[in-house]
Amino acid sequence: MAVTLQAVLRSLCRAARVRRVLFLAMALTWPGLSWTQTTAADEVKVKAGFVFNFIKFTQWPPVRSAQGVPLYLCTPSDSALPGALELLQGRPVAGRPIEVRRRVPAAEWRQCDVMFLGGGDAAALDGVLRQLGTAPVLTVGDLPGFVASGGMIGLRIESDRVRFDVNLVAAQRAGLSLNSQMLQLAGQVLR
Question: Which domain holds residue 135?
């Protein structure tokens, strides 16, 4: 049975308790989709759903979380989850609409709230993380070894399932607070 990203996102707009339950359900059921049952388009939609939930379960410093101000979800190129991140465009998170920005130049990376790095961004990984330093920018990627390299949340495939790891040290260094329920679902948490 296929679950659409839009259906999951609609459900997540309900009360905070319902969001937590759905996040747990999504994390436990969506990873069960096997590659033989899904297409590459489904894979990127599932990953985009995870990104949406990572955003919902991250708390930025007050100076970065003013209500009504767009929450910038950036990528340094066009290669990251093609077509799927755009499904998040305009979705509200804590009173802030998500604005997806692709091919963001290095001079603007620190103005982003979330930076997603995909497979085509491997060569830029070290430079992006170095440039961001301790800026309050949630870094998410699906590159091998992403969290070990200093990224905050890394998506990976394990036994035909989407899993994620967290570099809590990197998130805390940037002044970000990650929800404890999300940390419990992570495969590995670097502390």
Answer: 5-190
